[in-house]
From TrEMBL:
Organism: Mucilaginibacter lutimaris
Domain of life: Bacteria
Keyword terms, alphabetized: Cell membrane, Membrane, Transmembrane, Transmembrane helix
Pfam families: Polysacc_synt
Subcellular location: Cell membrane
Record-linked InterPro entries: Poly_Biosynth_Transport, Polysacc_synth
Keyword rRNA-binding: no
Annotated protein name in UniProt: Oligosaccharide flippase family protein
TM segment ranges: 12-37, 43-66, 87-107, 119-138, 147-165, 171-194, 219-240, 252-275, 296-322, 328-348, 360-383, 389-407
Membrane topology type: Multi-pass membrane protein
Length: 445
């Protein structure tokens, strides 16, 4: 299969499964949140925000760094097996560290002590990320099989949520079911990768494990700083204003994350190795792709923002119910957040990382994390959950502006107005759309 066809197949698999993955929660979540209410929804998201840092520690940005190395060495099987083992044992080591960290947090947090089952069940999801090897499938642009496996598991997950969560006290089962489903996906995809790419598990030695962790520290610190200003809002909101406020904020925040996962992440995941290879050929070729994608990202996210501002209130009421009407303002405050997230993906991951500007990328993200902490301390105090939403939006906007300005200072122009014409945007999208239509007709036949 050609490089272009593999990219289209990967994109089709990702988008198709992402759509189904997020259509299913559109059925399950509205039922569940009406049963458990804002407070229990808040505690689940509060603990989830804490475990997200441990997931990040275990993943250590290998999805970006390892996929980049593999994409540049597509035909080197020895290199592939070496990276696979280094990443796997590095994740195992980092998981052990996460157990120690979470144990300390668990015994020092009154909130976690009050909801021990939620705290324990939420942590189990970290086991799945020892086995996660999406970096390998991304680099190989071979996502169709794992996407289908993931879909089957998600169907079972959502059915279990609807079956087992029948009354308010059943809220403790949500993190347990989600963790078990993720473990099944992670372990299944891991052993599928071993079989598909004829890999073998061999311990590469402590030095090799430490070397890959040390090599990727900049990207990890960037991801850590980014997580600070996307999830610390929830932790600070819970600490200063209470778990119910977390529930209202999480309702609006979750919908934005849903939009990001459905529309932005699949595009970014598929584009990263493609743009990486383009930059590997020449800087000009990589920049040209980014320039063509910028208007597509801008106009698509602008439509999303208008939709949120227009019907956001109606959607919150239908999706979550009358108990969550306080989330309407939060959702509308975050209307342009998908645009900022997409631009940050394009300027940061797609451009700065591929141009080896990792340290500058990290510096911007680190400064954004500090900015977010300061904003939260002030805005949460005065406006609670709405203040947390404003803080997140200001921080993401700062990142987009700072990244673009820094890239431009390096005499690299990503904004090419000629690509903003309707005809060129249409021409950019037409090959992708036509390929999707062909695949749908073939599937139907």
């Amino acid at each position: 299969m050609s490089h272009k066809k593999k990219a289209i197949t990967s994109m089709g698999a990702l988008v198709g499964v992402q759509i189904l993955n997020y259509i299913l929660p559109l059925i399950a979540i509205p039922v569940i949140v009406r049963i458990i209410g804002p407070e229990k929804f808040g505690i689940i998201n509060y603990v989830s925000s804490i475990t997200s840092y441990l997931i990040l520690l275990i993943g250590f940005s290998f999805e970006l760094s390892a996929s980049r190395v593999i994409a540049m060495n597509q035909d080197d099987h020895e290199k592939l097996n070496s990276i696979f083992n280094k990443v796997f044992f590095a994740k195992a080591f980092l998981f052990a560290a996460s157990v120690v960290i979470y144990t300390a947090i668990f015994f020092s947090s009154e909130t976690l002590q009050q909801d021990k089952p939620v705290a324990i069940f939420s942590f189990l999801i970290c086991i799945a990320y020892i086995f996660d090897c999406n970096y390998l499938y991304l680099a190989k642009q071979d996502l169709k099989q794992t996407a289908m496996f993931n879909l089957i598991t998600k169907v079972a997950l959502n059915l279990c949520l609807l079956i087992f969560i029948r009354e308010k006290g059943d809220y403790i089962y949500q993190p347990l079911i989600i963790s078990l489903a993720q473990i099944v996906v992670g372990v299944g995809a891991f052993f599928w990768a071993i079989r598909r790419y004829t890999l073998s598990i061999t311990f590469p030695g402590l030095k090799a494990v430490w070397d890959i962790i040390w090599r990727d520290k900049i990207l990890f610190f960037h991801s850590f700083a980014h997580t600070v200003y996307t999830t610390l809002n929830i932790i600070m909101l819970g600490y200063f204003k209470g778990i119910t406020e977390v529930g209202f904020y999480s309702a609006g925040w979750k919908l934005i994350i849903l939009i990001q996962a459905l529309l932005i992440s699949p595009l970014g995941m598929v584009l990263f190795p493609i743009i990486g290879q383009a930059f590997g050929k020449s800087k000009e070729e990589g920049i040209a792709i980014v320039q063509k994608m910028l208007p597509v990202v801008f106009f698509s996210t602008l439509i999303i923002a208008v939709g949120i501002l227009t019907v956001g209130g109606v959607f919150i009421n239908i999706f979550y119910g009358a108990k969550f009407l306080e989330s309407v303002v939060i959702f509308k405050i975050l209307a342009f957040m998908p645009m900022m997230l997409a631009l940050n993906m394009l300027f940061g991951i797609q451009t700065m990382v591929n141009l080896k500007m990792d340290k500058y990328f990290f510096s911007i993200t680190l400064s954004a994390a500090f900015l977010n902490i300061l904003l939260n301390l002030v805005l949460i105090h005065f406006w609670g959950s709405e203040g947390a939403a404003i803080s997140w939006f200001i921080t993401e906007t700062y990142c987009a502006v700072a990244m673009y300005a820094l890239i431009k200072r390096r005499k690299i122009e990503l904004l090419n107005l000629k690509y903003f014409s309707f005809s060129i945007v249409k021409a950019t999208l037409e090959p992708i759309v036509s390929k999707f239509k062909e695949r749908i007709k073939k599937s139907a036949a």
